[in-house]
Each structure stands twice: as C-alpha cells, then as structure tokens.
Amino acid sequence: MSLKDQFVLLTRGFDQSPVEIKTLQDEGAEVLAFPTIKVISMDDFSLFDSQIKKFKKFDYLIFTSANAVEKFNARIIEKNIELDLSSIRVTAVGEKTYSACTEYSMPADIIPNEFSTRGIIEELSHYVLDGKNIFIPSSSIARTDLKEGLEKLGASVTVVPIYNIETPSYEDVKEQVEILKVRRPNVFIFTSPSTFKNLISLLKIENLKQYFGDSVIAVIGNTTKNEIEKLGLKVHIVPSVYTVKGIVDEVINYFSEKEEIE
C-alpha cells in the first residue's frame, strides 16, 4: 500500500511545512493542511520585561520551539533592547528552532540528539548546572517537565510565558472544516497534544474511536502519543527524529512496508 489515493491531514498551515507537504504529494497523497492551533502574543509582557532587565544573570537561554524564538525576538525588537549573548549558552530543542535562532542572529550552542524535553534534560546533564540560572521563554500552556528536570540537576529555572496557544475560530478554518464534514482522512498527523485536542473541538467529534477507528495516526513524539493513547486510540507512527520531516519520512516508510508485506 503506497500513499497513492491516501487522504492525509496535517495539523499545520501550508506556509509552515511546504516542503513536507510537497514530499507527501510527490508520494501520491492528497494533503489537507489544517492549522489547528493559533499562536498569539501575550497581552501582558510585564513579567517578561522584568526578567529581561535582569538578563545578565542568566547562564542558559533555552528555546523549545521556533514560535518561542520569534516571539522572544519580536518583543526585544519592539522594546529596542540589545542583549549581550556572549556569555550565555543558547539551547534549541530541534532543527527548526535552531534555524529560527540563526535567522535572528543568535545561533544555538547546544542542540540535543533527541528533539524533546527529555532530550534537552539529557543533553544538559553533561554540563555543570548546579547554581546556574536558566531562562526559558515559552507558551502559556507549557508543561513543567523541563523546569523540574533542570532543577533536579541543580539549576535555578525561570520560565516566562511569551505567547499564547489558542484554537482558531471557525472562520479561520472554515474551508478545512467543511471538507472534513464530507470526507474523513486516512492518515492524521499531529504535532502536539494541542493540535489533537483542537481538532476534536473544531470538528465537534464525540465518538473518538468511531471517528479515528480505521485511520493511521502519526505524531511528532511520545508526549503527543501518550496524550492520545490515554483516550483509547492507537498511535501507529512515532518518528525517531521529532520533527515534521521526521513524521513525513516515517509515514512514507510505514506505507511502503505495508505494501511490501501485502
């Protein structure tokens, strides 16, 4: 079974993953780009601004997403602040985040082998963090795993929300919702727990097992996998490299292997 005639839903906008979408299309898939999360700036930056004034005290700056890099720099530019990064270790969770750091002229010194919270903790466990100060600009719904893991290594960790994650309005995704009222994808690609939860909300899905029953579910990492499987669904694909490209490559491999078996 190849991807020919497979209807794939990717929970990102076309502008976020044009290369990965084309890769799927080149394999014969029909792809629906459906951004199920909306990234917006914080209404109140007072906490962030107060910490930036003390920026010299930090030894590490950790970015867990490209969104965090973009919103961090947007605020710095808006406030006309010049930061001295010469004595700080910048850490990026993965390739896209690393690229965003480079784009804003703040190249990351550290990138973990595993692009995840666990990967960051594992990578930084090789450094002496006792007494070190770490700054993490994040989303308002960020999990506490990273902060707790780094504190166990002896660091003092400051996590400051720099952006919000919301569900898009119906008007934002009306075209995709209307398509999905009459067609159900064969393959779902989720890039975070929020993309899954918001899809359920936007489509008003009540019976999850019935809706996703015979579809293939692919996710970006174990955090998303665990959240979905808690609800009784089966996750078929988790890439070894936690990126959208990693998922797409694994989806292609999954269907190629099925074709060989059949």
Order of helices and strands: EHEEHEHEHHEHEHEHHEHH
Give the C-alpha Rg: 20 Å
Number of domains in the coordinates?
2
As for the CATH topology of the largest domain, it is: Rossmann fold
CATH class of the largest domain reads Alpha Beta
Please provide the count of β strands.
9
Net shape: globular
In the sheet with the most strands, the strands line up as 3-7-6-4-5
Structural class: alpha/beta
The main β sheet shows up as:
5 strands, mixed
Would you tell me the overall average pLDDT? Answer: 93
- What CATH architecture of the largest domain would you give? 3-Layer(aba) Sandwich
State the helicity in percent bands.
40-55%
Q: Beta-sheet strand percentage?
A: 15-25%
